[in-house]
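Is this the right way to post structure tokens for a design question? Let me know if I should format differently. Anyway, here goes:
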């Protein structure tokens, strides 16, 4: 099985998992999330993360998405995955957003890893756009009154 594993500061990863459940079909055993909660030490996070991936085996794949490249949740997760010998089938990205996580969840079993990586980057980038409101014409407003 391929797992999408989300890690973040605070509740971003668990919140993202909740949204994925809405958009990708309910609670999914193939999506795992762990957040570094306020006041939690790196060791406590590492233990919580290790527990959350305890069901993953060497034959499984992991798509690890973290909120910040180089952030302690992502670096600690990588260390725990490596310590457990689960890094054989590992894809890692930082800077996750909803589009990236949804793409990983929906496409992970249908395309090869190279296509998946390209799709994750493409979807993540395409999801970031400035939203500009068009100025309203005052004359139109008067007509509506």
């Amino acid at each position: 099985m391929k797992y999408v594993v989300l890690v973040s500061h605070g509740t971003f990863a668990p919140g993202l998992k909740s949204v994925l459940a809405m958009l990708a079909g309910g609670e999914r055993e193939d999506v795992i999330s762990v957040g570094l909660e306020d006041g939690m030490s790196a060791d406590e996070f590492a233990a919580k993360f290790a527990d959350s991936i305890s069901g993953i085996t060497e034959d499984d794949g992991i798509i690890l998405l973290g909120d910040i490249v180089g952030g302690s949740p992502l670096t600690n997760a990588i260390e725990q995955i490596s310590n457990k010998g689960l890094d054989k089938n590992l894809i890692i990205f930082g800077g996750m957003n909803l589009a990236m996580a949804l793409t990983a969840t929906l496409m992970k079993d249908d395309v090869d890893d190279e296509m998946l990586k390209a799709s994750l980057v493409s979807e993540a980038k395409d999801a970031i756009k400035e939203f500009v409101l068009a100025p309203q014409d005052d004359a139109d407003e008067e007509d509506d009154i």
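Format looks fine. Someone answered above. Worth noting: The helical segments are 12-23, 42-52, 72-83, 98-107, 113-126, 138-144. Strands lie at 2-9, 31-36, 61-66, 90-94.
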